[in-house]
Design brief:
Number of domains: 2
Number of strands: 16
Strand order of the largest sheet: 3-2-8-9-10-11-1-12
Order of helices and strands: EHEEEEHEEEHHEEEHEHHHHEEEEHHH
Helix content: 25-40%
Structural class: alpha+beta
Radius of gyration: 23 Å
Distance between the termini: 77 Å
Length: about 375
Amino acid sequence: MSERRTTAVLDRNGLDSLVEALRAQGRTVIGPTVRDGAVVLADLASADELPFGWGTRVEAGRYRLVPRADGAAFAHTTGPQSWKAFLHPEREKLWSADRTADGHLSVAEDRPESPSYAFLGVRPCDLRAIAIQDRVLTGGRYKDRGYLERRAGAFLVVAECTEPGATCFCVSMGSGPGADTGFDLALTELVDEHGHRFLVRVGSDAGDAVLSAVPHRPADPETRTAARDAVDAARERMGRAMPPVNLRTLLGESLEAERWDDVAARCLTCGNCTMVCPTCFCTTTEEVTDLTGDHAERWQRWDSCFDLDFSHLHGGPVRASARSRYRQWLTHKLFTWHEQFGSSGCVGCGRCIAWCPVGIDITEEAAALHDELAERLRPDARKEPEP
């Protein structure tokens, strides 16, 4: 691609043209918009539907929309949804079966044509999450065909983070606030004395082709510097951080920690953390029939390791206690995910903290486990007290 198009600048009208260019390609443009008191992901007909002038205030167990005076479109934190809802949908029909008039069974696979998605406003932490789900669902021997088809045609427009929230900890997970690879276009939004504009970086030939159809100007040094400084400043303002230790070792040596009892006393085992997590991928299947018994369908739907039936074997669930289920989730996310897929399963988006009804904080739990382990391994920790 040409150097001239490696970086460019769009104004507010250019953002409108970007959405129009993507829709002109026959793509379904999905992006953030305000609905029902939250920033949610939905089909966008135009850039006007983006959450201009809205930010968010988040804390453990708390999420609120707040107005902004600067009119920024991407100055909000991650909402309750992630792009997983479109690439790996919550419920998907796999096949249906009908009993024919002569008593035979007719089975038909359900494979509707996958939309050609354009995701606008993907945060760098969510970009990493998409890469992780790529590895999980398409990188092994058994591939999720539906995910593969939806992912193959997806066009990714990143919005780099310049306004981290109180529950964000992407820096300590190495997944933000800037994006390096894996996108088609990357936007860095700037609103200052020089106006409202977006620095654009091209990450693929497809991105270069789309940018060429959108009115833009070459990036000037001042805008490049301002964009870089904005992302660097966000890096210094993270609301949370994982303890700076080897999390794999920490979790591997904390399986019998007393802290699990503490968190179990607070955890509702509702599964909210797994539902909002952009990397959790577990599913189950269920069969449904009509009242006649002549028609049946098999559906795949999301499942959660917090569900009692998730580990059910003959005789009952393997993980019956809240302690064992929370421990399973956290150790898989930070430890055994590495053994399975070669990376952590956490990207530091903070959704599990914000959307936990009782405000359980994954970074706080990791820090508490670290403190307990350090105390247990302290050289004098097991000495008998002097008389």
